[in-house]
Design a protein that fits this description.
Layout lengths: L3 E8 L12 H4 L3 E5 L5 H10 L4 E5 L25 E4 L1 H13 L5 E5 L8 H4 L8
């Protein structure tokens, strides 16, 4: 139920966000883009939360994955997180990171929810940002 307008999507450094971040200061009050692997989804979410992030988007580390969603399950600890975590297909995460690198940008400016088409999301049968 939360809406974010013109917020930064900041790729975590290191990308897996399993510990201290080199760019944690830039994640404060923003949304972090994190890569799957190295530790649990919950651990990644807590690292971003500890750095003051508002939410985390975890992209699959299989860069060619454009259709297989991963279930983000609890990691059998009793820890919790207070910020939302979302999963992004590997191809989408790769395209975002590649675009930022090609343009020399440290982050993207995004709005959530997003729908770049006039077609309702439920009719598209794919995420609204997948247009590459």
């Amino acid at each position: 139920n939360t809406r974010y307008d013109q917020i930064h999507l900041v790729p975590a450094d290191p990308p897996e966000a399993c510990g201290e971040l080199n760019n944690g200061v830039f994640i404060e009050d923003q949304i972090a883009l994190v890569e799957r692997g190295g530790c649990s989804f919950l651990s990644k979410t807590r690292v971003i939360q500890e750095h003051g992030g508002r939410a985390v988007i975890i992209a699959d580390n299989a860069y060619d994955n454009d259709s297989f969603y991963i279930e983000m399950i609890q990691d059998s600890t009793r820890r919790t997180a207070d910020i939302p975590a979302l999963f992004l297909l590997g191809r989408d995460g790769y395209m975002i990171r590649r675009s930022l690198e090609q343009h020399g940008l440290p982050w993207a400016i995004i709005s959530i929810p997003v729908n770049v088409t006039s077609i309702p999301t439920y009719e598209m049968m794919q995420p609204p940002w997948t247009f590459w």
